[in-house]
Amino acid sequence: MPLSDTQTISAWSAPAVKTLSGLGIMKGDEKGRLAPTASATRAEAAAVLSRTLDKLKWQQ
Fold this sequence. Notes:
The protein is an all-alpha fold. It has helices at 14-22, 42-55. The longest helix is centred in the last third of the chain and has 14 residues, at 42-55. The protein is globular, with a radius of gyration of 12 Å. It starts with 13 loop residues before the first helix and ends in a 5-residue tail after the last helix.
């Protein structure tokens, strides 16, 4: 799902957000919003970290 609030993403972070969302690491909420000015919850941060480790094929 494309992010509906890409116009609110800072120019300096837009390339990284585009890459990470393209890889499925960063995903929007149920309404397709990234909410770049909001604070991330611990659950959201854990989900991003988990998806990053999955992409890196991290093994325990």
